[in-house]
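Example record used in the benchmark description.
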Amino acid sequence: MRYLSDPQLRRRTTAATSKVESYNNFSAWCRFGNEGRVRDNDPAEQEKHIKFSTLLTDAVIFHTTLDMMSVLRQLAAEGWETKPEDLGVLSPYETMRINRFGVYATDEITITPEQYDAHLPDIDLTLDPV
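Model output (structure tokens):
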């Protein structure tokens, strides 16, 4: 009854549900082997499949987020103002530029990446209370 009578609770619940559904859809898109299905009755193999699928999904999301951060830093350096509302429409679940079936180079696999700096200069991420 509380859910039905409280519009704010319904909005928060719908927003949270949408985020979870978006993640699940993106994760399913990332699982292209065996059409994303677990085809083994062995619980250990099922657990492995789920963990590897989650790892792959999270790695793709992390890479996409790094690309987004790079663009945001570049825009900030060029003097563009970024507001929290602008960032609120971004999503790391982008599939358009990901080539799942392409050629993957492994010749640079032993190179240690530079340390990641998560700081966004001159961008205020605080939201005004509504």
